[in-house]
Amino acid sequence: MAGFASILPLCLRELTFAAGGRAIIRGVSARFDAGPATIILGANGAGKSVLMRLMHGLLAPSSGEVSWNGQGPARARRGQAMVFQRPVMLRRSALANVLYALELAGIHAPQRERQAMDALEEVGLAAVAQRPARVLSGGEQQRLALARAWALHPEVLFLDEPTANLDPGATREIEAVIRAFDASGTKIIMSTHNLGQARRLGDEVLCIHQGRLVERAPVEAFFAKPASAEAAAFIKGESPWA
Amino acid sequence: MGMSRCVVATVALLATAPALAQQRFITVASTTSTEQSGLFRHLLPIFEKQAGFQARVVALGTGQALGMGRRGDADVVFVHARALEERFIDEGFGVKRFEVMYNEFVLVGPKSDPARAGGSRDIVAALHRIKAAAAPFASRGDRSGTHFAELELWKAAGIDIAKDKGPWYRDTGSGMGPTLNLAAGMKAYALTDRGTWLWFRNRGDLVISVEGDKRLFNQYGLILVSPAKHPHVKKDMGQAFIDWMVSKEGQLAIAAYKIGGEQLFFPNAEGCLACLKGLAGRPEV
Amino acid sequence: MPGTAEAVRGALGLIGAGDPVLAGIVALSLAVSLSAVALAALIGLPLGAAIAVGRFPGRRALIVLLNALMGLPPVVVGLLIYLLLSRAGPLGEMGLLFTPSAMVIAQTVLVLPIIAALCRQAVEDAWVEYEEQLRSLGAEGLRAALTLVWDIRFSLVTAVLAGLGRALAEVGAVMIVGGNIDGVTRVMTTTIALETSKGDLPLALSLGFILIALVVLLNAAAHLIKEAAQRRYG
Fold first, then answer.
1. CA–CA min distance C47, chain A (Å)
2. Domain B18-102+218-270 in CATH: superfamily?
3. Which of B215, C20, C107, C185 qualifies as a cystine partner to C36, CB 3.0-4.6 A?
């Protein structure tokens, strides 16, 4: 995205979100700079998914502010991509799905094909480019979702429990791609239940508990000695052997 | 309104692209008895060949056909209820009434003749007996020419049928075929035109009870819908149709229509009696 | 009435012989109903998709209304269109009454709510699945709706075929606005009604067989299309 102003840092100011009378996010403030891969941890219902959707702009906060380095919403959207727990593909070929994303992003037709194929090669799906996306395996579809995001060259990549539904082999493949994203300079913001994955991929951890940010620390420090009681309980709960 | 007209016009254009667009035609509002007898199937091809345009018949009951004329949805009406036709003209909706053809009504009823209505030529006496015996009677009840004639006959018998009817009087509200179906099924009496009776196949044990009464005479009339009231009426083609129907060709074509060797309708246009000389058929009643 | 067996034999004879009157009636029925469904789809598919994806005041009420209109009685539609197209009515000058065009219009009105409502339902169900991803990629509003419609096109084919089945099978609307004119506006259903009331069964029955066969074929086609699409695209 040379020539464009960066959309980072992302600043969250006193974000709240309530739905159906329930408060789900209760005042989260944080700042995200380029660089470290951020892992968001928390129990089910803690608000991880909602928080990510607030950041990505899929939900509007009840109060508070999401600010992308002062950029407008269109510019901010263009600099982000998101991969969901369940990949959503159109009833078209794998290649066509990536092309669709590029078309939406306003990439001109002659370049689209090249960029799409590059993205498929990056994730190792070039061989199935013409296969209908929906007949691919779960792991392949998730890789395709990553390819679709890769083609857009986003500054920030959100991932909401991307390997929750995948077997260990597919999980490894996904993690490899995420590492590639990270290495290429994309800011990773990912939620997961898989503590091992958090340690493998993350540089820092944000722990969410009942809609509040209770701890933020570099990944090793967090796992070695969590500062907050909630974080400690969470780790214990997630690791049957702890 | 302009917008919806646009939409409808587009729709209509798209929908009628094929054939229909350039056809010349008139709309004739006529009765179910003439349509169902098959007369038009026989008559119209002959007419179209000679005249070069189509006569499209919408078959309803006499009342509805005249209603169509009043609204201007037809160019010509072809019905059989003289009093209603004359009122139509008096009210300014029709130009002139031309007599075209006639047939007769007959009273049909169960062979067992429970009301002892049959065997005579006196329709009024028969109706008295039916009412007295409270024998089942199936009426059209649909503002058709036949229905209208039936009502006139009750009146001639001095019976106010609207007031004096009982459960024996069945108002079917439907065409001649369904009414006869009902009569056959219920072993009821019914008034029908001879034409329908000739082609009707589900007679059950119904037979003709009364025929030949002068009052059963059933005259058909043709009227051009008034261009004064409805300027869009195709008056030249409409008049051409009427002229043909009362001409020698038309009258001969009407006489030629037979079912099982029996003639259904008898041409009797004024001024054409001379050209009908020598045609087999019943003398004008 | 002639015996049923005799009528059936007569009917099969007419079909086998390719009776031209029969063929003409079937051809007109197909022309009218196919035109009506094409028009209804042209209007109804985008309409249904727009309602599914859009958010505006009165949306709920509109959806309820649309679903209710699916059950519009054909005779009522016929009556309303008749009043519109009659010379005494607002669109009388167009001279459309008692022509196949009037029949197309009436059937379009009848079928439009069916296609729009079914499309709305299908798109809304799909929207639940697709919404976040499409919005994440930057597709909103009309763009998203059209992408969805194309993606679920096979379910929509089913909706369109449902509309076609309804159009072919109805008699009330086309009878009133068409006038059942011999050779001009007489279709399968109106002929069946007429011939049955005359007690003339072979023609009515033959048309009845053809109509049933068509409806069965349409349903089979819908089923096969859905299955094939499922297998191919997942």
1. 21
2. Periplasmic binding protein-like II (3.40.190.10)
3. C107
Work out the end-to-end distance of chain B between its first and last CA atoms, rounded to an integer number of angstroms: 55
Fold topology of C17-184? MetI-like fold (1.10.3720)
Please state, in angstroms and rounded to a whole number, the distance separating the CA atoms of residues A219 and A221. Answer: 6
Q: What is the pTM of this model?
A: 0.81
Query: Which residue in A has a C-alpha nearest to residue C229's C-alpha?
Result: A91
Residue of B nearest to C178 (CA): B58
Distance, in Å, from the CA atom of B217 to the CA atom of B211, rounded to the nearest integer, reads 10
B26 Ramachandran zone, left/alpha/beta (phi>0; psi -120 to 50): beta
Residue type, B79: V
3+ Cβ–Cβ pairs closer than 8 Å linking C and B: yes
Q: What is the value of ipTM here, to two decimals?
A: 0.91
In order of A98, B38, B107, B176, the CA distances from B190 in angstroms are 77, 21, 6, 10
Reported as a single tens digit per residue, the pLDDT across B57-105 is 999 889 999 999 999 999 999 999 999 999 999 999 999 999 999 999 9
Find the chain C residues whose C-beta atoms sit closer than 8 A to any C-beta of A: 129-130, 132-139, 143, 147, 151-152, 229, 232-234
pLDDT band at B139 (very low <50, low <70, confident <90, very high): very high
Cα(B260)–Cα(C29) distance, integer angstroms = 32
Q: What is the DSSP string of B198-256?
A: HH----TTEEEEE---GGGEEEEEEEEEPTTT-TTS-HHHHHHHHHHHTSHHHHHHHHH
- The alpha carbon of residue B78 is apart from the nearest alpha carbon of chain C, in Å, by 15
Task: Give all chains having 3 or more CB-to-CB distances under 8 Å with chain B.
Answer: C
Q: Kindly give the pairing relationship between strand B189-193 and strand B94-110.
A: antiparallel
Give φ, ψ of C157 to 5 degrees. Answer: -55, -40
How many Cβ atoms are within 10 Å of B155's Cβ, its own excluded? Answer: 12
Side chain identity at residue C54, one-letter code: G
CA distance C100 to B87: 33
Residue spans of the domains in chain B: they are: 18-102+218-270, 104-216
Q: Tell me what the mean pLDDT of segment A111-131 comes to.
A: 95
CATH 3.40.30.10 fits B104-216, yes or no: no
Q: Is the torsion defined by CA of C220, C226, C227, C228 positive or negative? A: positive
The contacts of residue C157 (CB under 8 Å, 6+ apart) are C222, C225, C226
